[in-house]
Amino acid sequence: MDKQLIITGILAASFLVLFGTAEILYHKMKIKAELTRKFVHVGTGALTLLFPVLLDNHWYVLFLCASFAGILLLSLRFNLLKSINAIDRESHGSISYPVAIYGCYLFFSQHRDADPGGNGAYLFFYLPVLMLAVCDPVAALFGKRWPLGPYRVSGGNKSMLGSAMFFVSAVILCTALGYAFSGTRTEGFILLSVIISFAGTIAEALSGKGLDNLTIPGVGVLVMYIMYDVAHLFHMYPMN
After folding, report:
1. Is the Cβ–Cβ distance between 26 and 82 less than 8 Å?
2. I need a labelling partner for 132 at 20 to 30 A (CA). Which of 40, 41, 73, 163 fits?
């Protein structure tokens, strides 16, 4: 059997185990849905970080993301997976997340094929995905703990402090990832990190009902795509 099919099957089974564990935690151990939902969010994030390393074709990623989205849609339709869906607010985050993951992988695979010997293509996946996985929770943590400068957008409660912490953590993350994959540090490199972080901060601030799962990585990829030639100029990505 094709090794890639085996890996895809293992990843699919891992997602099912993750969902099943969350259901046990919710129904048997009576853990609140907000916590089991975060557990699934962290677990799926960890599994998706393996995609660029283990999978070499976007069709396998499409299968996993489509299956993930299909299960979630069916769970909403038939009132299943309460460990994810039993929250007291409207959210499209669970559905938009697999769409964002597949989109990031497409950009990654495109640039990986164009530069097979370099590592810069990995930024097109890891940077937007980790910006969502790391910076969004940081913003929520600080915003809820110290809700300074509150404002309301798209039915969601935000704070200036939360947005500021998203920006700061995003700049640190972008700079660290860029250095890890390119090994260079320049003023232009840091400038690009600031631009990507600012765009992500605006996307997070304006998005409600869980759509930031789509807009944050989407904006990150879009900015990198637009500035790809500029990034080469600043040596952010390895040159052929």
Report:
1. yes
2. 73
d(CA 214, CA 101): 9
Together in a domain, 164 and 228: yes
- Domains in the chain, number: 2
CA separation for the pair 240, 238 (Å, rounded): 7
> CA-to-CA distance for 51 and 11, rounded, in angstroms?
9
What is the pTM for the complete model shown?
0.85
Q: What is the pLDDT of residues 62-87, one digit of tens each?
A: 999 999 889 888 887 778 888 887 76
Tokens 């299956």 locate to 67
Q: What does the angle CA 122 – CA 44 – CA 104 come to, to the nearest 5 degrees?
A: 30
Q: Are residues 181 and 142 in the same domain?
A: yes
CA-closest candidate to residue 135, choices 100, 101, 159, 162: 162
Question: Contact at 8 Å (CB) between 22 and 84?
Answer: yes
